[in-house]
Design a protein that fits this description.
The protein folds into four domains: 5-139, 2-Layer Sandwich (Beta Polymerase, domain 2), CATH 3.30.460.10; 140-223, Hydrophobic Seed Protein, CATH 1.10.110; 225-357 and 372-407, Hypothetical protein af1432 (Orthogonal Bundle); 427-470, no CATH class. A seven-stranded mixed sheet has the order 3-4-5-2-1-6-7. Strands 8-9 form a two-stranded parallel ribbon. α12 (243-259) crosses α20 and α15 runs parallel beside α20 (373-385). The longest helix has 27 residues, at 394-420. A hairpin with a 5-residue loop joins β6 (115-118) and β7. It is globular and about 85 Å long. It is α+β, with helices and mostly antiparallel strands. Helices cover 55% and strands 10% of the residues.
Length: 473
């Protein structure tokens, strides 16, 4: 804890309030774990008896905001926030049970069931560790506090995975067994809580490893029942795995590309990182990669004469299923739309590499989905990397990957500027030519815009001349 003097000074400052009586307080949970790992705590988690009254008094003394938190109805928690610096706050929760030992016994994992007593002057006192969590921190192991830990809150199944991923810890064998045994209890957990944990796991640069682990434990079958049909679903000669194993592989390749952006895209890797940084787009891209072929089982057809398997329109069926999955998981409309687009466009991005696709067709696609074309191309790259069946060739894979690299560079160096530039002419200009409002105006404007996107015209005068030609003036 020697490198956290600034953090602990901040805590003492919060508690330096002579006008109120400071109750017996304890630091708990992730705050203590971070301190013992010599990492800066993300926040301060405190517990005491009559937490609401103390938090309200402290907020009044410090002229801070008092914010009741809605973590769990039966576990009241209150946040006291510095009005001038919103990232400076304390979370003060009601002690569970009559004393700190009962509170720790109700926590999830031993590494989070450690408390540190806070002295009257705000400094730290003795460590209280009845579950020997400090030993498990030293062993880098996540272990249940007791056999009721997961039953009392099944979300802890996902939380164990998330902690293992974020801390690079292993999960204790008995805890793994309980997670597998109780996986079905996740059906009773609110979708919002599950989705929040999944997105955090997906942020990890090795999330595909942890998703494979969850699959082995039967956890993914509960959260995504659609994948059961993907398991064992055979594919054609372009693939060497069934639909599910191919999907896991594509997720791994997607993650590999994301982790090596500069290797694949050079200096444009920074632009891509910025593209994926906001609004959980990086996590959603990985999840879309895992589920990109979710529509295949329903569209699988075997030709009786040749034995060849086809999956016509599985992209559309996949987009439909993704819409249902995102709705069930209570994702935001933006998250849902992003995933639906990626799954619905993953074949289109693959097909654009074909040598006979016109430049106008490619530009229309880039214009249609804009910045989302970059994650769509990354997904198509990963999909191509996972096509390793006897009918697929190394030449095919290399050609698509090289096209993808060049297309992303072109997007940031040329295409993005073109498609985001304002229209050179509008419908009002065409009306001045005597045209009546209607779909024909839209057709002419689309052709002019297409020429503008391709760089064939660059001025308003040229756009008007082209419109006249199209109208046979």
């Amino acid at each position: 804890m020697e490198n956290n003097s600034l953090c602990l000074t901040s805590l003492k400052n919060w508690l330096s309030c002579k006008d109120i009586k400071i109750p017996q307080l304890y630091l708990v949970g992730g705050t203590v774990r971070d301190l013992l790992l010599n990492a800066s705590p993300k926040d301060f988690d405190l517990v005491c008896i009559d937490a609401g009254a103390f938090a309200g008094s402290l907020a009044g003394c410090k002229n801070a905001a008092f914010v009741p938190m809605e973590k769990k109805p039966d576990e009241p928690c209150y946040r006291v926030v510095d009005r001038d610096k919103s990232d400076n706050f304390l979370d003060i929760a009601e002690m569970r049970g009559d004393n700190i030992y009962e509170d720790l016994d109700r926590r999830d994992f031993t590494i989070d069931a450690i408390a540190i007593e806070i002295k009257e002057d705000g400094s730290l006192g003795k460590i209280i560790d009845p579950m020997k969590g400090t030993d498990d921190i030293a062993k880098r192991t996540i272990k249940m506090v007791n056999d009721k830990s997961i039953i009392s809150d099944p979300l802890r199944i996902l939380r164990a995975v998330r902690l293992a991923a974020s801390l690079n810890f292993i999960i204790d064998e008995s805890t793994l067994g309980e997670m597998k045994h109780r996986a079905a209890l996740l059906k009773g957990i609110s979708a919002e809580r599950m989705t929040a944990e999944l997105l955090l796991i997906l942020k990890n640069p090795r999330s595909s490893f942890y998703f494979r682990h969850m699959d082995e434990l039967g956890i993914l079958d509960i959260i995504f029942p659609e994948i059961k049909a993907m398991k064992g679903c055979p594919q054609n000669g372009y693939h060497h795995m069934d639909v599910w194993e191919h999907s896991l592989l594509v997720m791994e390749h997607t993650e590999h590309i994301i982790n090596k952006l500069s290797d694949y895209f050079g200096e444009r890797g920074i632009d891509i990182a910025n593209n994926l940084e906001s609004d959980n787009r990086l996590s959603l891209l990985k999840l879309s990669a895992l589920l990109h072929d979710v529509g295949k089982p329903a569209t699988s057809v075997v030709n009786p004469d040749t034995g060849r398997i086809t999956f016509y329109h599985h992209d559309k069926e996949g987009a439909r299923l993704i819409d249902l999955i995102a709705g069930r998981l209570k994702m935001s409309n933006r998250h849902r739309d992003f995933m639906v687009l990626l799954v619905g466009e993953h074949l289109h991005a693959l097909n654009l590499v074909s040598g006979d696709v016109k430049a106008t067709t490619k530009m229309k696609w880039f214009r249609k989905i804009g910045d989302d074309s970059v994650p769509a191309i990354i997904l198509s790259m990963a999909d191509t990397m996972g096509i390793l069946g006897p009918d697929a060739t190394e030449e095919y894979r290399e050609r698509h990957i090289n096209w993808s690299k060049q297309s992303v560079r072109d997007f940031y160096e040329r295409i993005k500027v073109q498609i985001e530039s304002p229209d050179l002419i509008t419908g009002k200009d065409l009306i001045t030519f005597g045209m009546e409002p209607g779909p024909e105006i839209g057709r002419i404007l689309a052709e002019v815009r297409s020429a503008q996107d391709e760089g064939k015209i660059t001025s308003r005068e040229e756009a008007l001349e082209l419109a006249k030609k199209l109208l046979n003036f």
